[in-house]
Write a sequence for this structure.
C-alpha cells in the first residue's frame, strides 16, 4: 500500500535552512529536485511556518484553521510548479501532486463516513440520552470524575476522541455549575482519557487511522497498545482523583427519548467498521472502500425510515391515545424523517479542509527535499525509539496530525514495535499540554475560562509520569514486536 506524507519537525527544517547556502542544488532526492538550499525552499518553509502559527492562534484570531493552510498549500505548489517547469520536470511535480491528492482522498472519504455516522447518532439523540442518564443519577463529583473519564476512554476508540471529549465535557459543565476547580480537573481527565483511548484503535484518532491505512500496522495489532494506553490514562487520573471533592451536586432530572432507528444506526456503524476491516484484511484494498459501502447501509436505512414513517406514527398515535398519554402525543408531533445527506453536511468540514491543506503543504515540502533531510537526522543518526518518544513530545506543541503525517512521509525503516510506539506517543503526547490535541483545544472553548492552558499545565508532572509509564509498558509487553520488520 502507498505511504503517506506530513510534517512535524519544521524547527529542524528551519535550522537546516539557516545554516545552508541559498542556491538550487543540481542533484535530486527520491521525490525530485533537491531545493532545500534554494530561495524557493526557504520561502516555502516560511509560508508553512507562518500558516501554522495562524492555526495555533485560531481561538484568539477567530480564524478557522483551514484558511491559512489552504492558502499556504496553493502558494507552495505554485512555486514548485514554476521551478519544475523551468527545469523541464513538470511531469514529476504533477505526479507528486496527484499522489498527495490520492492519499488525501482516501482519508477524506473515510473520515466523512465516520463523521456522518457520528452526526446521525447525535441527531437520533443517543448522546443526549447518555448525558441525561449520567446527570440524573446523583453521582458525587469524584464518581463523575471517574465515570466521564472511563467513558471517554472506551467511547473514543469508536466515536473519535474529539466527539467523545465534547460529549463528556457537556456532562461536566451541566453538573459542575460554578465549581470551577472540578470542571478544570475533570476536563483534563477527559482530554487524557480521550487521547489515550484513541491510541489503540484506527477509528479513535486520525493518527492511528493514517498508520493503519499506510499498512504499517494491522487492525488487530493496535490492540496490543491497550494496556499502555489505559496506563497512560490511569496513572494521572489516579493522582488527580485525590484532589476531587466528594460533594454531591444538585441532581437534574431530564427525560430524553431516542428517535426512531437510533439503536439500529449503532449496529450499522459496527457493521461498517467490520466491512472496512474486511476489505483491508481479505482483499488488501484501502479501508475506505468498506467505509463507503457502509455509507450505503446508512442511506438505505434512511430510505426505510422515511418510507415507513407514516405507519410508525400511526401506531404510536393509536397507542398514545389508548393510554391517554398527552406527553407522548406531543413527542410524536415533533418527529421528523431521517435524511442522510443532511448528516453529511454536518461533518467537520473545517477539519477536513485543514487536513487537505496540511497534506498538500507537507507533500510540497517533501518534494522540495526537507523531509528527507529531517529523516536523515532523527531516524538515521538517532535510535528510532528515542526519535519516536521525541515525536510524542513534539505533538504536544504541534498538532499530532501533521506530526504523524511527517513521520509517514519520511518512510523510516522501523520494526512493528517502533511503529506501534510512534502511534502511541503521537496519540497520547498531545495530552501533555492543553493545546496539543484537538480535544484539548475544543474543551478550552467549550469550558471557556474554567478549563485553561495553565490549569492543565499544573498537572503536567502527573501526565508526564503517565506518558513514561505507557512507553515503558509498551517496551516490556510488546518487546517481541521490535524484532519484526517490514
Amino acid at each position: 500500500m502507498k505511504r503517506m506524507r506530513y510534517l512535524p519537525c519544521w524547527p529542524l527544517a528551519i535550522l537546516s535552512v539557516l545554516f545552508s547556502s541559498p542556491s538550487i542544488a543540481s542533484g535530486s532526492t527520491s521525490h525530485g529536485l533537491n531545493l532545500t538550499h534554494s530561495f524557493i525552499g526557504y520561502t516555502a518553509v516560511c509560508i508553512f511556518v507562518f500558516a501554522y502559527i495562524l492555526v495555533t492562534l485560531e481561538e484568539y484570531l477567530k480564524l478557522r484553521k483551514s484558511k491559512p493552510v489552504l492558502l499556504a498549500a496553493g502558494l507552495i505548489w505554485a512555486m514548485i510548479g514554476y521551478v519544475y517547469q523551468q527545469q523541464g520536470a513538470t511531469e514529476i511535480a504533477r505526479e507528486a501532486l496527484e499522489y498527495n491528492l490520492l492519499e488525501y482522498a482516501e482519508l477524506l472519504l473515510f473520515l466523512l463516513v465516520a463523521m456522518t455516522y457520528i452526526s446521525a447518532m447525535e441527531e437520533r439523540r443517543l448522546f443526549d440520552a447518555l448525558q441525561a442518564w449520567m446527570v440524573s443519577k446523583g453521582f458525587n463529583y469524584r464518581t463523575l470524575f471517574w465515570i466521564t473519564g472511563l467513558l471517554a476512554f472506551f467511547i473514543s476508540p469508536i466515536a473519535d476522541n474529539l466527539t467523545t471529549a465534547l460529549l463528556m465535557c457537556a456532562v461536566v459543565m451541566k453538573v459542575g455549575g460554578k465549581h470551577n476547580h472540578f470542571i478544570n480537573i475533570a476536563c483534563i481527565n477527559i482530554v487524557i482519557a480521550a487521547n489515550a483511548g484513541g491510541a489503540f484503535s484506527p477509528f479513535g484518532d486520525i493518527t492511528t487511522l493514517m498508520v493503519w491505512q499506510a499498512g504499517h500496522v494491522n487492525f488487530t495489532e493496535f490492540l496490543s497498545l491497550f494496556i499502555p494506553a489505559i496506563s497512560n490514562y490511569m496513572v494521572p487520573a489516579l493522582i488527580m482523583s485525590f484532589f476531587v471533592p466528594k460533594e454531591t451536586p444538585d441532581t437534574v432530572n431530564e427525560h430524553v427519548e431516542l428517535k426512531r432507528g437510533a439503536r439500529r444506526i449503532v449496529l450499522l456503524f459496527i457493521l461498517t467498521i467490520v466491512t472496512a476491516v474486511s476489505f483491508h484484511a481479505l482483499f488488501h484494498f484501502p479501508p475506505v472502500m468498506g467505509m463507503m459501502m457502509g455509507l450505503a447501509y446508512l442511506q438505505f436505512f434512511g430510505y426505510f425510515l422515511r418510507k415507513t414513517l407514516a405507519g410508525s406514527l400511526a401506531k404510536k398515535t393509536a397507542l398514545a391515545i389508548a393510554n391517554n398519554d398527552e406527553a407522548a402525543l406531543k413527542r410524536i408531533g415533533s418527529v421528523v424523517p431521517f435524511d442522510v445527506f443532511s448528516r453529511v453536511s454536518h461533518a467537520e468540514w473545517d477539519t477536513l479542509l485543514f487536513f487537505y491543506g496540511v497534506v498538500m503543504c507537507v507533500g510540497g515540502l517533501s518534494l522540495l527535499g526537507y523531509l528527507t533531510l529531517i529523516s536523515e537526522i532523527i531516524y538515521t543518526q538517532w535510535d528510532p525509539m528515542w526519535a519516536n518518544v521525541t515525536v510524542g513530545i513534539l505533538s504536544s506543541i504541534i498538532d499530532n496530525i501533521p506530526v504523524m503525517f511527517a513521520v509517514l512521509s519520511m518512510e523510516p525503516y522501523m520494526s512493528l514495535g517502533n511503529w506501534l510506539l510512534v502511534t502511541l506517543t503521537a496519540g497520547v503526547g498531545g495530552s501533555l499540554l492543553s493545546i496539543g490535541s484537538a480535544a484539548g483545544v475544543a474543551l478550552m472553548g467549550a469550558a471557556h475560562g474554567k478549563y485553561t492552558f495553565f490549569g492543565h499545565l499544573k498537572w503536567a508532572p502527573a501526565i508526564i509520569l503517565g506518558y513514561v509509564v505507557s512507553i515503558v509498558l509498551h517496551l516490556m509487553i510488546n518487546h517481541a514486536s521490535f524484532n519484526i520488520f517490514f
